[in-house]
Input
Amino acid sequence: MMLELPERILARHVRRTAFASRVVWLPMVLIAGLLVYAAVLGWLSFREQTALRVRYQQEARHDWLSNPDKHPHRMAHFGNFAFRPKPPLSLFEFGMESYLGNLVFLEAHKQNSVNFSEAGFSTGLLRFGEISLAMVLQLLLPLLIFFLGYGVVAAERDSGTLRLLLSQGISPRQLLVGKMRGLVGVVMRLYVPVVLLTVVGWLVLQNGRVSADETARLLLLMLAYAGYLVICCGVAVLVSARSSSARTALVTLMGIWLMLTIVLPRAAQAVGAYVYEIPSKAQFFARIQDDVLKEGDSHNPADPHYAKLKDSLLTAYNVDSVQQLPVNYSGVVMAEGEKISAHIYTNHFDQLQQVYARQNRLSELVAFVDPFLAIRQLSMALAGTDYATYADFQQQAEHYRYEMAQYLNALQIKYIPNKKAGPTDKPHAISRANWEAMPDFTYQPVPVGVTLTQSWRSLVALVVWLVGLVVAFRWVARTFTVA
Amino acid sequence: MIRLAFKNFIRSGGVRVGLALLLVAGVVSLFIGRQFLDRQAQAIADVRAYQQTDFARNIAIHKDELGLLLYYLKFSLVNPSLPLSGLSLGQRDVNPSIQSVTIRALESQRYDADLTNPANLLLGNLDFSFVLIYLFPLLVIACCYNLVSDERENGTWKLIVVQQPDVMSVIYRLYAIRVGVILGVLAVLLVLAVLVLNLPVDGALAGFAGMSVLYVLFWAAVCFWVTSLRKQSSVNALLLVTGWLGLIVLLPTLLNTYIVARYPTPEALETTLTARKGYHEKWDTDKQQTMQAFFAHYPQFRSIPPPKLAFNWPWYYAMQQLGDDDAAKSANALRQKVAQREMVSRQLARFIPPLHTQLQLNELAGSGLSNQLRFQTATGRFHEELRLHFYQTMFTDTPVSAENWNRFDVKTFRDNAPSDTLVGLLPLLAFILLFVGVGWLTFRKTAAMA
Output
């Protein structure tokens, strides 16, 4: 009979004690219950929100199409709505979902805010956090790992069995590896069902029609969490190995957990927000307006920029007055105004985004000392519930708004006569057949490759932690003492 | 003996580090609160400056057409931040504190979001209320989890039991030292808060301080009960941290999901879509019908001559008005839903002390949802007053120059919040009595055991 490796025996021992202890079963059952609750919740919330948004998106489209013949500029103000679709993996990771607006009204010459975030309708409760599968894995499972793992070495030290083990020829390296394997084994027995739960929910929600991109996201997500949980196990074993008693190990690990999951993330973000200030809304739009007015005010008939535009048009078509132009003059003015104002708005909006990015940068850097932040950011990015994905939605919506406005301006330039309709005449209008030709807004998801390049810091931070863990294990094994 | 115990406690390294960390976090939180108040003041100054220059510019361009001028003019109403909100930012970072509205349909503008970085919102503020609600209990737990049990584990408890005739008084004193020191830190922070944030010393501040003290005492009472159970120190630590997790992370989360699921708000989307349709479809329907509907709402304007031209401003603003009228039903439903959420969460929060404390502090600081709801209502009134005034002048063809435009400065909303400070203290008081009572009963049985 082949002799079993000591690591394996130690690992099995860790698993057996973990599942035999009554103190452990209670939190395990609790966490398992929370996982199921979070899964059901994420599933229901995705289904409901998606149904709601699809319903209203269809209603909005129906309203758009039911407009009769009218002046194209009336349609430009009738406008369209962009509904932010809920990403499928939001069933697993809620991320910023509750703080992101869901609906933006798109009309000519005006960039509206994305409104109706869940947070706006929330009492102070939301600020205590939300429960999702990802939250359980990020926050609660590590605490359970620390509860399970604080004694793996230190308790043997307390009871004197550690000396016994080492005197039997087991090396400190074998001891640590064995304990680590055991702890990881226990945790994986909780993690694998979560993976299955997520995959099934995710498949069912999308009726089995999943894209390669989404699949890659899910796989990466599950892999990243496995890495994170291994890191947590490693920290538990190392602290246990270095502590003089089990109690010290427990208190240390609880301190670490509180620091990494509660204090540091908030502190890092708060400092980032403190250092980099964003303008007030009034100031932001005042600056945009100033820049637009510098270029030319399309609503002011005496504006020099538009006077020049008029002259050049009159020269180009060789006529004396705008009434004689073969194209609709006010349409040309609006198309020019839209071009200028959209460009300026985009510039200012990009600057604002950069300030946000700077505010968030500190958290991304702190991820190198706090694996919780690393997994959190990576998880939100992969699930599509992070700020980058939201910013992408805003960009796509603004792009659509611009296209819509210019499409209607083009129709006006082409079909609307320059001579104003008399007081008793029928107002100028174009056929409603033109409305159909403007397609509805559809959001194109960010490719996973782009997401990965955007969140490379968090990815590298996780890898650094894993590598650092191996180094730390070697060092602890080398300097290991029994007492 | 008590002096010795105090020295012993304060000299231990862990306690010093904990106290220092808490003080640092507290002071940082005060500066974050200071910055929040400064930014709010700046935002108000910005909107005031903007309104002045923008009014002058638009009046100069559209001096002949009041209807067109009013299409552009934005009137602002400010929800001022109380100095106390620097201690408890509440929902102030989520909801805009300034509403700028034209006299066009209100439902298409009142929900406009502020500029915010969602990452900041998600992680939450490091304000004083965070330090109080999350971190103070941890220090209480760190200082008290091994009381008595540590002495039992070291074997020194036996000596105390033998030497001291009244063991209970020893336990009280041990607690008094710890709770006293922690309350001292709290007091220092509150005094600093008054200085850093220029807080007026008034009833609201007293209520705020009272809530804070009771909250710390609540956690001390929980520790008192847990340590009375005669478990090992590590089990005490496990129980207390799990309790902290349950009360501060899990229960509020579960409650929030219940409330969100119980009172969903599809009316938000509904309102926006209806308001758009309600206004725009009037362009293509009979003008007289529109005017009749408008007169049904505002009989006082019945004397306006019917629109003869293809376009006139009374008709335009009547169309806008009907956008609001059409959306009124879903808008009211939305407000009711949110008010219900607020009411239910306050009722249920009474059973979860950290949650209750947070909501109560927000309430005192005027930074909670209820303040936002009253501000929303005030915005509606503000808009209605402007509307009525300008309908009158516009429909009677008053020239732009006849209006005293300086009168329309940025207006400030005064919140007359109903005060229930003392009632708010009761749930915490009840929990404190409960845990101290049960703890006392168990300690009477276990204290003398070695």
